[in-house]
Specification:
This protein has about 110 residues and is mainly alpha-helical. It has 5 helices and no strands. The longest helix is centred in the N-terminal third of the chain and has 19 residues.
Amino acid sequence: IFQYFRKKGFKTKREAAAYLETLRALHEKQASITISELYKIFSDTSKLSHTKTVSYQIAYNRIAPTLSYRKIDSLTVADLQAVVDSTASTYSTQRDIKQLLNHLYKI
Protein backbone atom coordinates (compact mmCIF):
# COMPACT_ATOMS: atom_id res chain seq x y z
CA ILE A 1 0.00 0.00 0.00
CA PHE A 2 3.00 2.25 0.46
CA GLN A 3 4.02 3.14 -3.03
CA TYR A 4 6.68 5.58 -4.02
CA PHE A 5 5.78 8.19 -6.60
CA ARG A 6 8.15 10.23 -8.68
CA LYS A 7 7.04 13.01 -10.88
CA LYS A 8 9.14 15.56 -12.66
CA GLY A 9 8.38 18.51 -14.79
CA PHE A 10 6.54 20.88 -12.50
CA LYS A 11 6.70 24.42 -13.78
CA THR A 12 6.49 25.99 -10.36
CA LYS A 13 7.13 25.03 -6.79
CA ARG A 14 3.48 25.74 -6.03
CA GLU A 15 2.38 23.07 -8.56
CA ALA A 16 4.72 20.54 -6.95
CA ALA A 17 3.39 21.36 -3.47
CA ALA A 18 -0.21 20.97 -4.64
CA TYR A 19 0.61 17.59 -6.20
CA LEU A 20 2.29 16.50 -2.97
CA GLU A 21 -0.87 17.34 -1.02
CA THR A 22 -2.98 15.19 -3.34
CA LEU A 23 -0.56 12.29 -2.81
CA ARG A 24 -0.75 12.70 0.96
CA ALA A 25 -4.54 12.72 0.83
CA LEU A 26 -4.48 9.56 -1.29
CA HIS A 27 -2.17 7.86 1.21
CA GLU A 28 -4.39 8.80 4.16
CA LYS A 29 -7.43 7.44 2.34
CA GLN A 30 -5.66 4.18 1.54
CA ALA A 31 -4.41 3.78 5.11
CA SER A 32 -7.92 4.01 6.54
CA ILE A 33 -9.39 1.26 4.37
CA THR A 34 -10.38 -2.08 5.89
CA ILE A 35 -9.39 -5.56 4.75
CA SER A 36 -12.96 -6.30 3.63
CA GLU A 37 -13.03 -3.16 1.45
CA LEU A 38 -9.67 -4.11 -0.04
CA TYR A 39 -10.88 -7.63 -0.77
CA LYS A 40 -13.96 -6.28 -2.48
CA ILE A 41 -11.80 -4.07 -4.71
CA PHE A 42 -9.46 -6.96 -5.40
CA SER A 43 -12.21 -9.42 -6.27
CA ASP A 44 -13.93 -6.91 -8.56
CA THR A 45 -10.80 -5.94 -10.47
CA SER A 46 -8.65 -9.07 -10.56
CA LYS A 47 -8.49 -11.21 -13.66
CA LEU A 48 -7.52 -14.58 -12.25
CA SER A 49 -8.40 -18.10 -13.22
CA HIS A 50 -11.47 -19.67 -11.70
CA THR A 51 -9.31 -21.98 -9.57
CA LYS A 52 -7.27 -19.12 -8.10
CA THR A 53 -10.42 -17.07 -7.50
CA VAL A 54 -11.93 -19.94 -5.52
CA SER A 55 -8.66 -20.46 -3.60
CA TYR A 56 -8.53 -16.79 -2.62
CA GLN A 57 -12.21 -16.83 -1.66
CA ILE A 58 -11.55 -19.75 0.68
CA ALA A 59 -8.49 -17.97 2.09
CA TYR A 60 -10.50 -14.79 2.65
CA ASN A 61 -13.30 -16.72 4.36
CA ARG A 62 -10.73 -18.11 6.79
CA ILE A 63 -9.25 -14.73 7.73
CA ALA A 64 -12.46 -12.67 7.50
CA PRO A 65 -13.74 -13.28 11.05
CA THR A 66 -10.49 -11.94 12.48
CA LEU A 67 -9.34 -9.31 9.99
CA SER A 68 -12.23 -8.06 7.86
CA TYR A 69 -13.10 -5.10 10.10
CA ARG A 70 -9.48 -4.08 10.81
CA LYS A 71 -7.95 -1.09 9.08
CA ILE A 72 -4.90 -1.81 7.00
CA ASP A 73 -2.70 0.69 8.82
CA SER A 74 -3.42 -0.88 12.23
CA LEU A 75 -2.19 -4.35 11.25
CA THR A 76 1.28 -5.53 12.12
CA VAL A 77 3.29 -8.45 10.78
CA ALA A 78 2.76 -10.24 14.08
CA ASP A 79 -1.03 -9.85 13.72
CA LEU A 80 -0.99 -11.28 10.23
CA GLN A 81 1.30 -14.15 11.20
CA ALA A 82 -0.92 -15.04 14.15
CA VAL A 83 -3.97 -15.19 11.90
CA VAL A 84 -2.20 -17.37 9.33
CA ASP A 85 -0.93 -19.71 12.04
CA SER A 86 -4.29 -20.04 13.77
CA THR A 87 -6.57 -20.38 10.74
CA ALA A 88 -4.60 -22.39 8.19
CA SER A 89 -4.20 -26.10 8.74
CA THR A 90 -2.30 -27.06 5.59
CA TYR A 91 0.58 -25.59 3.64
CA SER A 92 -1.56 -24.78 0.61
CA THR A 93 -4.04 -22.83 2.72
CA GLN A 94 -1.23 -20.88 4.37
CA ARG A 95 0.25 -20.16 0.95
CA ASP A 96 -3.10 -18.93 -0.40
CA ILE A 97 -3.65 -16.67 2.62
CA LYS A 98 -0.16 -15.22 2.24
CA GLN A 99 -0.62 -14.64 -1.49
CA LEU A 100 -4.01 -13.03 -0.92
CA LEU A 101 -2.61 -10.68 1.71
CA ASN A 102 0.25 -9.80 -0.64
CA HIS A 103 -2.26 -8.90 -3.35
CA LEU A 104 -4.32 -6.83 -0.92
CA TYR A 105 -1.31 -4.86 0.27
CA LYS A 106 -0.32 -4.07 -3.33
CA ILE A 107 -3.65 -2.37 -4.07
